[in-house]
Write a structure and sequence with these properties.
- With 303 residues, the chain is an alpha+beta fold.
- The chain folds into two domains: 137 residues, Endonuclease Iii, domain 2 (Orthogonal Bundle), CATH 1.10.1670; 138 residues, Endonuclease III, domain 1 (Orthogonal Bundle), CATH 1.10.340.
- The protein is built from twelve helices and six strands.
- The strands form two sheets. It has a four-stranded antiparallel sheet, with helices on one face.
- Helix 1 packs across helix 11 and helix 2 packs antiparallel against helix 9.
- The protein is elongated.
- The two termini are 12 Å apart.
- The model has no long low-confidence stretch (mean pLDDT 84).
- It binds a DNA duplex (20 and 20 nucleotides) through helix 6, helix 10 and helix 12.
Length: 303
DNA sequence: CACTGAGCTGTATCGAGAGG
DNA sequence: CCTCTCGATACAGCTCAGTG
C-alpha cells in the first residue's frame, strides 16, 4: 500500500506533452480554442481581458471549441457586443441578456449562464472599475492570492450574500482563467503561478498514473491519490522549461486531459493493455499494470 | 432513424459529523 | 452552540453511443 512519485520522469515527459499539444497534437487533437481573439480586438487590451474572463466563467460541461467560437461571433456582432462591456450591460434587463447570449449559442444553460455572466460583469464594474486588472492589482498580482479572492469574495445583492465570481471561483475554472490571462491575455505581471496546483480530475489522474509519474500499489480513496498527483507535477516541473519560460504544472493540464480522454481511459483496467498505444506519442513512457478508478476508489498496481 | 440514457475538465447546496 | 469540512446530491442542456 505505498505510492511513489517519479519526479524525474516529469522532466522527460512534461516538455513532450507540452509541445505535442501545441504542434502535432495528442491523439490527433491540438487545442487551445481560446487562442484567437475576436476580429479587431488587440491581444492584452481591456476588451480582450473582459472577453477571456466572461467567456471562461461559463466554460463548464461543454465543448470548448464551440464555446469560444460562439463567444467570438457574439463579440463580432454589433448587436450583442455590449455583453462584453460591464458598463453597457448593467442597464440591460436580465431577459434580454438571456436572449442575446443565446443568439450565437454562447449560452446553453440559459438561466444559469446569464446569472453567472451578469454577476461576474457587475462585480468587475462595481468593485473593480470595470477592469479585471484592478482586481489583480488588489491581489498583488499573486496567483495564489487571486484564487483565494475568487473563492472567498462576496457581496450583498439586496437579499443575501452572493459570490462575487460564481463558477470562476471553482477549483478548475479559476486556475484556468489565471493561466489564460497570462498565456492569451499576455498579462505579464502575475507571479506565483508555480504554486497553483494542477486541477486533478479523473482524466488528469488516469494519465498521471498511466505514465507512472505516480506508481505503486494502492487501494483507497481518490483524494488520497489526487494529493500525490498534484505534488508530483508541482515538484517535477520546477526545473523544466517550455523553451521560452519556466514551466508550471498548469502547462500540462490540458495535454494530460487529452492523453487520458482519448488514450489512457481505453486501457484494460486489469492488464493495462492499451488499444491505441501504437498511435500514442507517449507509448515509450507508459507503465504496465492495473489502474482502476471507480466510484468506490482507486485500485492501483503499477510499478 | 427515432429514441434513450450516460456523460460532460463543474458548481451550489444541504445535512451530518467533527472540532472549537 | 457555532463554525467548518466533507460527501452526497441536485442541477443543466446538449451530445453521442447504444438500442430497438
Amino acid at each position: 500500500m505505498a505510492l511513489e512519485l517519479d519526479v524525474e520522469k516529469v522532466g522527460n515527459v512534461a516538455p513532450i506533452l507540452y509541445h505535442a499539444f501545441l504542434n502535432e497534437g495528442i491523439h490527433g487533437r491540438k487545442d487551445m480554442p481560446e487562442d484567437r481573439p475576436p476580429a479587431g480586438v488587440i491581444t492584452g487590451s481591456l476588451e480582450h481581458l473582459l472577453f477571456l474572463t466572461l467567456t471562461v466563467s461559463i466554460d463548464y460541461q461543454r465543448d470548448a471549441h464551440a464555446l469560444w467560437d460562439s463567444a467570438r461571433r457574439t463579440y463580432e456582432d454589433p448587436e450583442t457586443r455590449y455583453l462584453f462591456d460591464p458598463a453597457a450591460l448593467q442597464n440591460v434587463p436580465f431577459d434580454r441578456m438571456m436572449q442575446d447570449l443565446q443568439r450565437h449559442k454562447l449560452s446553453k444553460k440559459i438561466h444559469h449562464d446569464t446569472f453567472i455572466w451578469r454577476t461576474v460583469a457587475l462585480t468587475l464594474l462595481k468593485k473593480w472599475g470595470g477592469d479585471p486588472r484592478n482586481f489583480l492589482a488588489a491581489c498583488d498580482w499573486n496567483a495564489v492570492t487571486i484564487l483565494e479572492h475568487l473563492r472567498d469574495d462576496q457581496h450583498f445583492d439586496g437579499k443575501r450574500l452572493t459570490w462575487d465570481f460564481p463558477f470562476l471561483r471553482g477549483p478548475k475554472i479559476g486556475p484556468l482563467w489565471v493561466r489564460m490571462l497570462r498565456d492569451n491575455g499576455k498579462v505579464e505581471d502575475i507571479s506565483n503561478l508555480e504554486n497553483v496546483p494542477i486541477p486533478v480530475d479523473v482524466h488528469v489522474a488516469k494519465a498521471t498514473l498511466a505514465l507512472g509519474i505516480v506508481k505503486g500499489t494502492y487501494h483507497g480513496s481518490l483524494e488520497g491519490v489526487y494529493a500525490f498527483v498534484r505534488d508530483a507535477w508541482k515538484q517535477g516541473v520546477c526545473d523544466v522549461s517550455t523553451g521560452k519560460r519556466p514551466m508550471i504544472a498548469l502547462d500540462v493540464d490540458e495535454a494530460l486531459w487529452h492523453l487520458s480522454k482519448f488514450g489512457c481511459t481505453k486501457r484494460n483496467v486489469v492488464t493495462g493493455e492499451c488499444p491505441v498505444k501504437n498511435e500514442c506519442i507517449m507509448k515509450g513512457f507508459c507503465v504496465k499494470g492495473k489502474i482502476h478508478l471507480g466510484k468506490d476508489g482507486i485500485m492501483l498496481e503499477t510499478g
